[in-house]
Amino acid sequence: MLFDVADESALDDLVIYPDENNPAQGDLTDLQVDANGVTGLSNGAEAGGAYDVGLQFGSVPDEVTGNITQTNFTVSSGDGTAVGFEDIDLNNMKVIVNSENGTPNVLGVTNSNAPDWTPAAADPEPTVEDFMSLMIPVEEDGAMSGMAEETMEDELFI
Fold first, then answer.
1. Is the distance from CB of 24 to CB of 42 less than 8 angstroms?
2. Ranges of each domain in the chain
3. Angle at 2 between CA 11 and CA 9, to 5 degrees
4. What whole-number distance in Å separates Cα of residue 128 and Cα of residue 81?
């Protein structure tokens, strides 16, 4: 997953959990933080642009190896302040999947009533609701599972 932050000066204070290559915490196998300097994954798979943050997931340290179907991570600042949607550039997020076989798929966020990850030529105007619906299960009545709406607006849960 590659994304930009709204204020690049905040990159020095950015904290990502789990720790890189710590299987007891999660499956994050590479973390890159470099203003407009992250272009892809450690195996050479490119996203077609330059980003501020790159997160790589896998089951082997430093690799994309493995079938990761679900993952969790937290983005915060060094002083413990929550990182909100206004701190992330939701218009410029990409996910590289299936890069082990040499033919990666680069996906981006859409702006639709039923958002999904689609080819990178996605609509440039995603909404907070579009992004959240990709990350948290939505019940049939449209409510976010287990979350108060005010929590959803105040914090970034990925």
1. no
2. 2-154
3. 15
4. 19
Beta-bridge partners for 100: none
Q: Which range is most confident: 52-56, 68-72, 87-91, 128-132?
A: 52-56
Distance (Å, rounded) from C-alpha 58 to C-alpha 124? 29
pLDDT tens track for 81-126: 778 888 988 778 899 988 887 778 888 865 544 445 555 554 456 5
Model pTM score: 0.69
Task: Give the strand order in the sheet containing 2-5.
Answer: 28-40, 46-57, 2-5, 88-97, 105-109, 117-119
Q: Is residue 18 reached through a cis peptide bond, with omega within 30 degrees of 0 on the bond before it?
A: yes
Q: What backbone torsions phi and psi does residue 81 show, to the nearest 5 degrees?
A: -70, 135
- The pLDDT tens digits of the residues spanning 145-158 come to 444 444 444 455 44
Nearest to 45 by CA among 101, 92, 104: 104
